[in-house]
Amino acid sequence: MKLxxxxxxxxxxxxxxxGVRKPIExxxxxxxxxxxxxxxxxxxxxxxxxxxxxxGKSGKLVRAMYCSTGRxxxxxxxxxxxxxxxxxxxLNGGVYGQYCTRICGSYLFHSVPYYRPDxxxxxxxxxxxxxxxxxxxxxxxxxxxxxxxxxNCKLKTQVIIGxxxxxxxxxxxxxxxxxxxxxxxxxxxxxxxxxxxxxxKLKKNSMIKVKMNSKFKPKSVITVxxxxxxxxxxxxxxxxxGKVNTKKSGKYKxxxxxxxxxxxxxxxxxxxxxVVK
Length: 277
Known about the structure:
By secondary structure, the protein is mainly beta.
């Protein structure tokens, strides 16, 4: 018996020294569970202030996001399973988060706070802090990213928070928005009333009427604009559906779909052209 105790003691000592762990039991909805949802794993690096969502089977990166974790590393580190979701949820300080997903206890993924549960009441100065430690412990995200987790990561999705894994930076840039007003819109919010959506127009010298047998290039007759992406670059993100047959008189529809790479906001415009002799 004494020998067995000594062996057990040595095994426990080695585990403590070298950090070898038994299979992790993750916390979800107040219960201990051993089988997380396998679709995705969400990694959060509190130093980088970046979130990576990885495919649970292939290990490939699915989405990268900038975030704001807690000031002074107060965001809880560890292994968790997502527990609940809320379209809106009250946060510390009497403000509100949109597209909230509970990680553990009072810790959530959520949008940058709003003064009220109203999409026009964003705390704009806090939006400009994304990419830095700025929250009271929760993980703040741009609305488009908070919504992506809300929509795509089912409950019991594994969340790993810490600094061991170096995460990949997002392709979408960090945006700075005006703080002249005390409240406003998140520039990534897909709400159809968001004023940050890209705008597409016909050029001044372009005509809805197209002469028969003339050359017609759908992108050559339009202009696109947004507050964050130059028009020439944005034009490359315009997709065209439909054709105008200049050899045959008649009416034609062209559908233009543009996605702003800075906000991921997508807008579709339909313009009717008429081929005339």
